[in-house]
Write a structure and sequence with these properties.
Blueprint (H helix, E strand, L loop, with lengths): L1 H8 L7 H21 L3 H13 L7 E2 L6 E2 L1 H13 L14 H16 L4 H25 L7 H16 L3 H14 L5 H6 L8 H16 L8 H4 L4 H4 L23 H13 L7 E8 L1 H4 L9 H5 L3 H10 L9 H4 L2 H8 L2 E4 L1 H6 L7 E6 L4 E3 L15 H16 L1 H13 L7 H7 L4
Parallel strand pairs: 3-4
Antiparallel strand pairs: 1-2, 3-5, 5-6
């Protein structure tokens, strides 16, 4: 089976250099996002839950930025939900989700639990998360009528990561994929859009299900086939493994809010900057966007989850503060009277043309109604960081340090970034792993 051969046979030296570079860039970005999420209440709850309910057993793994030993499945759960707690991680337009969020904690947990510390092997495992996760996500969207969360399909990619680290034979690898597909959380994404809570995108639960599937398969538990990987009607998605690199299709998120809110945010920012405006120059903001962005309806958030799953609130933050950072999606920003004025008075409507372009393209435009009655309108705008126009590595590093320096301290953040950048160049993962699990 081509997929199983790919899982166990791929070597880092055979990966094209641009693909290697992009995978490292997303590794650094994900580590920064984990630092951004570690201080959230969501992360604290789930890490305590993992420590209490996912005993370390005979092959412990340490939780990201926590250090407590738990089971590998528990470490994948805690790490995935910690990254997901700070909505600034990479994603893919057609999956409408985030392959890296579950893949990194799963790969770290398996490397820690198995003491397999080769840097190239680790980078291949992370790359598997993107290549298998993205294909599984597109396949599931194609074959299932409901719109499910990321965890539904990252369960398969994390099972692949576990199978590779455990050295499972082909039949057990196939069962691991089937177990993960069956147990993956096919949770309702739009429910969390309409009612934002700590459930988020299901990424941690998908990671937990996938890692667990690997261990279950090793013990003889059966579960094949994984329909989204083996069905004839999705064969076209899997036939180009090793030739089409799906990691190159992922987008980068400059702001810690839902990607669906970022085209409106960018449209507002572009107008404000182009005309040298202050928020007090603006009487009202009007947003025209696509339906899913319209559904991000919270205007006066009470929690960081509500702030991250909103269109009006981050657009107002962008107008007032000129950017959106960690402090802008916490309680400290919720009472800002200028942000509230613009968010509560914002008119958000949808466009048939923008709806037709979704999900392959995500457009919005903004109108600023000024205090003097003049109207300034942006062109149709997409979010920054799409794969066709990827931001510079310097910008990525700036975001990493903005997230990591306040949590780790500048010296340790630099050491963590350099350890990540050294992987695949002959450096083992031990240094990165030890830095990444140091409690904060």
């Amino acid at each position: 089976m081509q997929l199983i051969d790919f899982i166990h046979g791929l070597r880092w030296k055979d990966v094209p250099p641009p693909v290697q570079d992009r995978t490292r860039d997303f590794l650094v970005d994900l580590l920064g996002v984990a630092a951004g999420g570690i201080g959230t209440r969501l992360s604290r709850i789930v890490r305590d839950h993992a420590a209490d309910q996912f005993a370390a057993g005979s092959t412990p793994a340490r939780m990201i930025l926590d250090g407590r030993p738990v089971s590998p499945a528990g470490a994948a759960l805690a790490g995935g939900m910690t990254i997901d707690a700070y909505d600034a991680h990479d994603g893919h337009r057609l999956t409408k989700g985030h392959a890296g969020c579950a893949a990194l904690p799963a790969a770290m947990a398996m490397a820690d639990a198995t003491a397999r510390l080769d840097g190239g092997d680790f980078m291949v495992s992370l790359l598997l998360g993107y290549e298998i996760g993205t294909r599984a996500g597109i396949a599931l969207h194609r074959t299932a009528c409901d719109y499910h969360t990321t965890g539904a399909w990252t369960a398969l990619s994390c099972a692949a990561i576990a199978a590779r680290y455990l050295g499972l034979p082909a039949d057990q690898t196939r069962h691991a994929l089937g177990i993960a597909e069956y147990h993956g959380p096919r949770s309702q994404m739009m429910r969390c859009i309409d009612h934002p809570t700590m459930l988020k995108d299901g990424s941690g639960w998908g990671g937990m299900a996938g890692v667990s599937a690997g261990y279950l398969a090793r013990s003889g538990f059966t579960g094949a086939p994984a329909i989204t990987a083996e069905s004839a009607d999705v064969a076209d998605l899997w036939g180009d493994l090793g030739r089409t690199w799906r990691v190159m299709e992922q987008y980068y998120k400059p702001f810690p809010v839902c990607r669906w809110a970022q085209p409106p945010v960018q449209a507002v920012l572009s107008l404000m900057q182009a005309h040298g405006l202050r928020s007090t120059d603006v009487a009202r903001i009007e947003i025209v966007t696509f339906h899913q962005s319209l559904r991000l309806a919270t205007r006066t958030p009470l929690t960081t989850e509500e702030a991250q799953y909103s269109t009006a609130f981050p657009a107002a933050v962008a107008a007032v503060r000129g950017t959106i950072g960690a402090e802008d999606i916490t309680e400290a920003a919720f009472c800002d009277p200028e942000i509230r004025r613009l968010a509560e008075g914002m008119l958000v409507t949808e466009s048939d043309a923008y709806n037709a372009a979704f999900p392959a393209r995500r457009f919005a435009h903004a109108v600023l109604v000024l205090q003097d009655g003049n109207r300034l309108e942006s062109p149709p705008t997409e979010a920054r960081g799409d794969p066709e126009a990827m931001v510079s590595r310097d910008e990525m590093h700036g975001k990493f340090h903005a997230c990591a320096d306040p949590v780790l301290g500048a010296a340790k953040a630099i050491a963590l970034r350099k350890a990540a950048e050294g992987l695949g160049h002959g450096h083992p993962i031990e240094s990165l792993l030890n830095l990444a699990v140091t409690p904060v």
